[in-house]
User: Fold this.
Amino acid sequence: MKNNFWKNKKVFITGHTGFKGSWLVLILNQLGAKITGYALNPISKPNFFDNLKLSRFLEKEYRDDINNFSNLNKAIKKSKPNIVFHLPHQSSTIARKISEIIKKPDIKNKILVYGNGNS
Assistant:
């Protein structure tokens, strides 16, 4: 059975540099999708995304925090996607926020606990 559903579809992926996002880039590329990625830099070296040089499969790539809503909104509008996959690496985003917050003098004596049920 031949399925051309993904052929030339514009796909926007948040978290494209993470493990799941990297696999999605690889698979959707094979299916003919036009992919735009939006993510932070990979958090480890080596990593799947860089090792396979997956940037070559992207129409456009943005390296930014999804919490920067202004830039995220601009990137989505510019790419005009048919489909959006939201796969951010939440724990790294939270870890960065915690480390920034802890460095603030008014917070340093407080304990912060973040988490989601999927970690």
